[in-house]
Amino acid sequence: MDNTQTRQITVLQTAAILVSTIIGVGVLSLPLFAARAAESAAPIITLIGSVIAFFGLALVTWLGIRFPDHTIIEYSEQIIGKWLGRLGSVFIIAFFAVLTSLTAREFGEVVVTAVLKTTPVEVTVIVMLMLAAISARKSLTTFAYIHNFYFPLLLVPCLMIAILSLNNAEIINLQPIIWSPANHVFVGVLTIAALFQGSFILTLIIPSMKQPKKAMKASLYGILIAGGLYIVIVAASVSVFGSEEIKKLLWPTLELAKATNLPANILERLDAAFLAVWVTAVFTTLLSSYFLTAYAMKQLFRLREHRVFSFILFPFIFFMAMVPQNVTQLYGIIEMVGRYGLIITIAYPALLLLLAMIRKKRGQM
Amino acid sequence: MLQTAIKGGDRMKLIKGYRRTKQQKQPKKLPANHTLAEFEGKKLSGSLQELEGIIDSTVGKSADLAIRKLHVFGRFPAVMYSFSHMVQQAVVNEDILKPFMHAPMHLQGRSIELAQLPDILLYETLYHGEVQLQGGIDLLIRAILGGDTVVAVEGMKEAFIIGTRSVEKRSIEQPATEQVIRGPREGFIESLGTNLALIRYRLQSTELRIDSREMGSRSKSKIAICYMDGITDPEVLKELDRRLSEVEIDGILDSGYLEQFIEDNKWSPFPQVQYTERPDKVAANLLEGRVAILVDGSPLALVIPTVFGQFYQTVEDYTERFLLMSAIRLARLVALIFSLVFPSLYVAIISFNPELIPTEFAVAVAGGRAGVPFPAVIEVLIMEVSMEVLREATIRLPQQVGGALSIVGVLVIGQAAVAAGFASPITVVIIALTTIGSFATPAYNAALALRLLRFPLIIMAGIFGLYGIMVGLIVIANHVLSLKSFGVPYLSPLVPGDKEGMKDLLIRAPIKWMKNRPAFLHPQDNIKLHVEDQAPSPSTGETSPEKR
Amino acid sequence: MKSMAARRSLQLFGVLLLFVPVLSGCWDRLEIDDRAVVLGVSIDEAENEEAARKEENEVSHVRGSLPPPKEGMVKVGVQIALPGQIPLGPGEAGGSAGSSPNRTVWVIHVVGHSINDAFMNLQQQVSSKLFFGHLRIIVISEEVAKKDMSNINDFFRRNAEVRRMAWMMVSKGKAFALMNAAPRLERIPTLYLMSTLDNAIKMGKFPKDYLGQYWSNSSKKGQEGFLPYVDIKEQDNVEIQGLAYFCGERLVGVTKPMEISGFLGLRGINPAGYRAVVLLDKDDLTTAVMTNVTHRHSKIDLSIKDGKPYFKIKVELEANLAEKMGHGISLEDPASIAMIERKQEEGSVQFYKNIIAKTQSKSSDIFGFGEMVRAKKPGYWHQYVGSKEKWQEMYKQTTFDIEVAVRIRRIGMKAI
């Protein structure tokens, strides 16, 4: 029995999907990006990055509210024509496939460097991708449930580590809160904004939302929580380590977990435990981008089921994940792909929205 | 002679028909009771001789069939059939034979025609509550099989079916698997009638509906579906009806058979139907908008739709003070999680991440493990398996020996294993905690599921450490999240969130706070509790304590 | 529909089955008793370069291919826990550990060109895999620290197993002696060392200065790192002898134990634990009293004076009177308490000034004054300082003004 009405997803669930999609493996290196760009002003530029990301998400949301029954794959064809729209969709699909593989690879590298030192990175990548591929076969409702369920698992460890590290925090490390002209703030802001790109999944969610009109509320909540968490993490690591030390660490958040111990020495260091819990966060991110890729392909090819694509995509994504030769190269690619991806996740929707307004296209409600 | 010929022909036809249906892929019917199915629709002719022949060829071969010939009012020849051990002899003598054979005072002297006889017997002489007149031969035979007494009179086209069934049953006892300290002490027994009475006695409402049906082509088991009209979601009932109608089995001997037919996902280790032997629990579930299914011959009622939360909740949660029971419920939840992840966590920390535990302890653990030849995974697996064996053995043992063996077994084996260098002392502690933890879960079937899932987790921990445990847990969680029981997501009210249901999930809120029924069951009538903002009066109408 | 579900499950199972061979390796499983749990590491200079080169085998490089580094080769000593020697749980073993010291751990040493090289040489000799997850103590000899710490810091920072909550310390004399020491209070010697320092923090005798903090401090542009300076005594006990302060990655000086309290006072770190002798009358020894500082508070005001940073530091100390050495004064008189306060204030100002001057002379700003300039006067910082090296120069010219206020609150159970 399936009393699944098509529109089941609530505002809170949408916000949870956004948060757990946004928060992922990026958090581990986020303080590094922020501190590199702005030193002690890292929290502020994280805030600016979140605002930019919100602007991009708002564009997608407006589009979604304008076409409450369709995803970007469908309405882009209505707005800019069949072939141009399809071209855009192909770019979206390719971008998210790359994003999926980079996320899997990045986390695989973290795990292999920090915990499972002799396990081949291929294995950790395969395991994560398998997890995502199997779960991406489920329906959109289950997809929403999964995000909803893991949502608290993201907040708790982050907040816990931030609170526990307050013990060693020094306010002076966060001063001055404004960056100096010498910093490359602009690039850093873009890199941070790129960490929010998973929120593009919203375009898939809106057609299944109970009240698509409230999507803006959901995206606001989503960015508020995710951005807030980012700022908390960045502020915590900068205040504990100081920006200069962060620049020397590949994954400052993980190092923060290492420097933290639970009261009464229950666990003496939290890095392995944090990484273990973080598997869920990475999983949700991976699931979203994988799901988005498969679902977008389904819509592009006008199929009824997105299931088929989950395993068809698997080898491609896996091989893409194996392309970067080393960690340094990997991070170079991640930063580059992230920044250029903003064209797809912010500029492209902006263009669509503009054209939709000019051509007065809108979906029926 | 004639009948046998017909019978043979019929049988041929029947077999052919059966084949045909099979070819046409129609819902296939098991031809269970050949000789009974033959008489489907056949009416009583009035000839006792013919009836005798039919009975003789169907149930007559059984030694326990009692055939008693008599003359009604001394005039009309009649015959009485019953399975002698299933009927109450005193009732047969006093309430059947006597009024049949002995015409009452006011009738004496009146001449009675055959045509009048059924009415006279039914309205004037038979003083028994369950009497009906039936003409279909199959119905008569079925009634005999069910323990009723059939009386046929020569020349009458219909025979009397008199309810005399009396099967020995045990008395109502305390439920063995769901004992409570505070709460009713009654448990279901095997007899469906008694069980229904136990429920109806608790819910004396016009809204309590009991649908009955027969299932099992051979066993003809009676099944009762109970629900509250006006509360229960009709969709659930419709779906249940659909699933029940698809069941084609020769015998339903226990509600467990039925459970496997109506559950959503049979590959899942998680139970998707709750069973209980407590009438009060059934009543509370009915009030929440669930449906209960009782099977004649089974002391366990099924309750649908089921969500995971029900498995760690007990009746006492609602009868005791909410603060204490909330704490105890949390403890139960901890035990549940313990029993699932504790051994794998141990393996992961010992074999992969010993840096997590305090240095003193780590060094000591290394010392404790120093003589053990196996890796921690193998050690834990061996101990877990032997624990399962021990537990299973304890269930099978006679009660007098069982208790002694379980304690001796655990103590001696544990101690000896450590002494022999077979396991480290800490492993024994871990295994003991896990085992105890799995007993703290009130629902046996849910505990079983988690007990089994522990093993893959241990293996995952042996391959990938903490990372493997998380991957395993994610797989389990995703599976649970995709489960549904009759359209209700399995993890409701947690996912998808339901404010009203949350009050009764991890903690149990005061009953006064739970004004509405949990929304995930889609009840038609949402309001459970009418409270004015005043001091609680002892006679608040519908504040029947809710239990699951 | 049912059969479809079954087929789907079977398919899924099949796909999973394909991955079984991939997953069947237990690459990283290493039992805790199969690990050589390194509890402490000592780093010394190799005494005799030639002998060391002979001793070193060709493990990570062919002999002669790598010239010895200009700092000289290193001698690394490790303390490895012996599983089985340390009994599980508390119990009778506490006494026996005392009677047979050095049995719970295994102390060995190797030489190498670099830290990692030395560890590779060590691994060649030890059957179990070296495991640094429980490394609690890293002792570095003064000589090594004076030369260069960058190789040491790099190795330990890069290794994911090493915890940031470990202690790094500089030893007077040979660091290896500390590995060999067997203090009687703990079963495991390094844990004794660790608890010495941890308890010193709790008693207010030492600032929090875990490895991670040392790293952070020495990374900062306006601050230098410092480490505890320890020495081993006759009874295998360990004494904290002061702060070893660095300039960049090099050790440049060591304070006296008393001067740790100066550091703590200037930074206003609580709890306070040092006691001071206050002599009221220079010539009369009977007027000496000891005060026990219980609470410290410091306020640092930064301004720019003559183009140089100028710090105005106000330290407030709350103290109790702990001991009177003679009968020269009576505490019944509030004036005498006020006098003690005054005297201690005078002494303290000088004391603090000396410490700062000492670090200034070595351009080692362990207090983080430079960080304050960076944080509070970013404009000035970017215009005139901007880098670590420049601040090291600037620190020498920085001026300070120190004010101390001592408040004696209690005099104990005795009335006079």
Architecture overview:
The complex is a heterotrimer of chains A (about 375), B (about 550) and C (about 425). With about 375 residues, chain A is mostly helical. Chain A has helices spanning about 10-20, 25-40, 40-65, 70-80, 80-115, 120-135, 140-165, 185-195, 200-205, 215-240, 245, 250-260, 270-300, 305-320, 325-360. With about 550 residues, chain B is of the alpha+beta class. In chain B, a hairpin with a 5-residue loop joins strand 4 and strand 5 (about 160). The radius of gyration of chain B is 30 Å and the shape is elongated. Chain C contains 14 helices and 13 strands. In chain C, the strands form 2 sheets. In chain C, strands 1, 2, 3, 4, 5, 6, 7, 8 and 9 form a 9-stranded mixed sheet that branches. The longest helix of chain C has 28 residues, at about 335-360. The radius of gyration of chain C is 27 Å and the shape is globular. Chain C starts with a helix and ends in a 6-residue tail after the last strand. Residues about 90-100 of chain C have low confidence and may be disordered. The interface of A and C includes residues 119, 134, 248 and 255 of A.
Task: Provide the fold topology.
The complex is a heterotrimer of chains A (365), B (548) and C (416).
Chain A: H1 11-22, H2 26-38, H3 42-66, H4 72-80, H5 82-114, H6 121-135, H7 140-165, H8 185-194, H9 202-205, H10 215-241, H11 243-247, H12 252-258, H13 271-300, H14 307-321, H15 327-358
Helix pairs in contact in A: 1-7, 1-10, 1-13, 2-3, 2-8, 2-10, 3-8, 3-10, 3-15, 4-5, 4-15, 5-6, 5-13, 5-14, 5-15, 6-13, 6-14, 7-10, 7-13, 8-15, 12-13, 13-14
Chain B: H1 2-23, H2 34-38, H3 48-58, E1 65-72, E2 76-83, H4 89-101, H5 117-125, E3 131-134, H6 137-145, E4 149-153, E5 159-162, H7 192-202, E6 208-215, E7 221-228, H8 234-245, H9 255-262, E8 274-276, H10 279-288, E9 291-295, E10 301-304, H11 316-319, H12 322-351, H13 359-369, H14 376-396, H15 399-419, H16 425-439, H17 444-464, H18 466-482, E11 484-485, E12 488-489, H19 499-502
Antiparallel strand pairs in B: 1-2, 2-4, 3-5, 4-5, 6-7, 7-9, 8-10, 9-10, 11-12
Chain C: H1 2-23, E1 35-45, H2 49-55, E2 74-81, H3 93-99, E3 105-112, H4 115-125, E4 129-131, E5 137-141, H5 142-147, H6 150-158, E6 167-171, H7 176-180, H8 189-202, H9 211-219, E7 226-232, E8 238-247, E9 250-254, H10 257-267, E10 275-281, E11 284-305, E12 308-324, H11 334-361, H12 369-376, H13 378-385, H14 388-397, E13 399-410
Parallel strand pairs in C: 1-4, 1-5, 5-6, 6-7, 12-13
Antiparallel strand pairs in C: 1-2, 2-3, 7-8, 8-9, 10-11, 11-12
Helix pairs in contact in C: 10-11, 12-13
Keywords (chain A): Germination, Membrane, Transmembrane, Transmembrane helix, Transport
Pfam family, one (chain A): Spore_permease
Transmembrane segments (chain A): 12-35, 41-63, 83-104, 110-133, 145-165, 185-206, 218-241, 272-296, 308-327, 339-358
